[in-house]
Structure formats: C-alpha cells, structure tokens
Design a protein that fits this description.
The chain has 362 residues and is α/β, with parallel strands linked by helices. 46% of the residues lie in helices and 9% in strands. The protein has 15 helices and 9 strands. Helix 3 packs parallel to helix 6, helix 5 packs across helix 14 and helix 6 runs parallel beside helix 12.
Length: 362
C-alpha cells in the first residue's frame, strides 16, 4: 500500500532528527565561552561572574546574589569598609547581583560559586514574593542537564529552552573553536578584567564602559507614591488561589531549596536581604516561612522607606545605595558562633586584593 513507504520515510526522518538532536547535545564546548557569550549591556556581567569565581584568587568571604535591586543597591567595597569599621575584620565582599528575576539563574550562580570557592556568608535577595518567572538567560549558561531536568510545573520556559538547546550547542561549539571571530576570549586576560568587585551603584558599567548616567536622580515623593499605589493594586501574588499555592510557587521554591541545601553542605551561612521595590518597603515578604529557620533576614525596611533614596520605583539611587551598604556592613559584622575574624582595615583589605590580582597577572 502507498502509505507504507511514506510511513517508513517518516520513521526514518524521525530517527535522523532524534540522532541529530542527540548529537548536537553532545557537542563539546568551553564553559568559559558559555558564560562570557552574553555580551549585551549589563547582561555581560555573567562573564565577569565566571572570571571572579575561577580566575581571581582574591577571597570571597561574603557574596550577594540577587536581581538588579542588589546589583544597583549594594556597593561591595562600601559594605566591606563598614564591616571592618564595625569590628567585623577584613572580609572580602562581592556583589553577584544580575538583572531580572529568576531563582533558576540564582541557583546557577550559587552553584558555580559554592562548588569552586570557600565562602563564609551567602546573602540572598528577597522581594515581596518569590517570582514565578524563569530567568530569560538561564538557557545561556545552564548545563544541558540543568535544562533537560528543570521542573516542568509551572515552568513556562521549559519548551522554548529545550527548543533552543540544539542551536545553542552548535553555536557554542563553533565559538569555542573560533572565539576571536565572535569577540570572545579563549583564556582569561587580567588586563581586560573588571576587578575583584564591581560597583554598579553610581553607574551601571561593564568593561569600563558606563551604560547609564550617574545614578543620583531623586524621584519626587508624590510620583513615587502614585506609582507604588498602582503597583500594589495590580499585584496578584496568588493567581491560582490558596488551594494551589504550592503548585504556583513550586518552580522558584525548587531552586531556592537547592541553594539552601548546597550552602548547608558547604557550611556556608545564609542570610536574606529583603530588597523589594518602593511599593512594598513597609511590608514583609509574602511567605516568610520560606526563609524562617534558614537564616537571618537583614533589617533594612526603615531605611528604604525614605523616598529620597530611590532612583526609580524599583531601584535605589547612589545615595540610597551608600546608606544601605553602610547598614549592611554593620549588620554583617557579627561573627558566627566560634568563628575567628581576621582583623583588618578597609585599606588593608584593598591592598591584599590588589596584590593577589597583580600576582595572577604575572
């Protein structure tokens, strides 16, 4: 019958397609190429994150992981200075904040950090509710297994991530062979490195190039309050109702649990920084039970309530970031039980860092 040859051709085509898919997933590539491949504006910070973890021997005692709220609101050097002044010793503070929501990307950054470096304290950003969104650039830096084994419910990016995976693997293989043709680096170049910490509180910048004007703008309080009221009115933190809340928030909780489990295995203290937009400054996180028992929530709400500290309804200006960073240094100064601190002044910490990076360059 006529349909039999057609069925055989269809079956053969399906087998070839599956084999091609499997073959593309096995294409080898350099992980450094994968992390630096995203080079657009502030998204290029992913390459610096990989370099800071793998190529810079400067210690990472305290690491911040979060969204642009943390990236623009926490000055690592100012936290470090305030911590030393408060008697917390010489601890190197690094801000790994990265734009956009997505606990799945926070997991990738935390895993890269905790599996390769000795960290004392991990500070995770918390907002008004756990975002149900997957990070749009998870596909760019995740391992193949991360993408294939990601939770299906409720993960609106799963199908599109799988669909992009073969082309991603092919391109990463090609870029590994010819990185210079794509503007990428085959190996770490200290001369093109942004340094052991990057301050994005005054200006957002990557590779020494400023991407924003000076962040000294102060929005009029009336404008802030109007926007905040609209945001609160439009917010729906329980779209599926209380009955299906566990399902609705399963995706971010899955990755938050993985971060907490890995930190526990590595003996890393976890703290939480509640850093929502202006609309939710006076409120507590929607589900504080997610964080209870896992670490201290750093108290900054009274500080954030000042409308003079906001650049826009979601991000602090440089004045707000300076005050927040000083507060965080004081809050982080208390040692863990039984922990001996290295006593040091901020200048000593900076000199130590410069010496390490100079040695790496030689």
């Amino acid at each position: 019958m006529a349909f039999r040859p057609l069925a055989r051709r269809f079956a053969l085509a399906a087998v070839v397609a599956v084999a091609a898919l499997a073959g593309s997933l096995a294409i080898p590539h350099d992980r450094y190429i994968r992390w630096q491949e995203m080079r657009s504006e502030a998204w290029a910070r992913l390459g610096w994150i990989y370099e800071r973890v793998h190529f810079d021997p400067t210690p990472i005692d305290i690491a911040f992981i979060g969204t642009s709220h943390s990236m623009n609101g926490v000055d690592g050097a100012a936290v470090q200075a305030a911590l030393a002044t408060a008697g917390g010793g010489c601890r190197h503070v690094v801000n790994f904040g990265f734009p956009s929501y997505g606990r799945n990307l926070h997991w990738l950054i935390a895993r890269e950090l905790l599996e390769h470096r000795e960290v004392r304290t991990l500070v995770l950003e918390v907002f008004e509710n756990e975002s149900r969104k997957a990070h749009p650039f998870f596909i760019n830096v995740a391992d193949v297994s991360d993408i294939v084994e990601a939770p299906l419910l409720i993960n609106l990016n799963y199908v599109t991530d799988i669909a992009q995976l073969p082309a991603r693997q092919v391109m990463l293989g090609l870029k590994t062979l010819l990185p210079e043709r794509f503007g990428l680096r085959r190996s770490f170049d200290p001369a093109r490195y942004d340094g052991h910490d990057v301050d994005n509180t005054r200006q957002v910048q990557v590779g020494g190039v400023a991407l924003t004007p000076l962040r000294d703008r102060v929005l009029p309080p009336a404008q802030l309050d109007r926007v905040a009221a609209r945001m609160r009115a439009a917010k729906n933190t329980n779209m599926l109702g209380a009955r299906f809340e566990a399902l609705e928030y399963r995706y971010p909780r899955y990755y938050l649990d993985r971060i907490l489990d890995l930190a526990r295995q590595r003996g890393v203290t976890v703290k939480f920084l509640y850093l929502p937009g202006y609309a939710y400054v006076g409120a507590a996180p929607r589900d504080p039970g997610l964080y209870a028992g896992h670490g201290e929530v750093l108290a900054t709400g009274d500080l954030l309530a000042d409308p003079g500290y906001w650049y826009d309804p979601d991000h602090l200006n440089l004045q707000g970031a300076a005050v927040l960073s000083a507060r965080l240094g004081r809050l982080l100064a208390a040692p863990r039980d039984g922990e001996a601190l290295r006593v040091g002044e901020p200048a000593a910490c900076d000199a130590e860092s410069r010496g390490m990076v100079a040695a790496q360059a030689r």
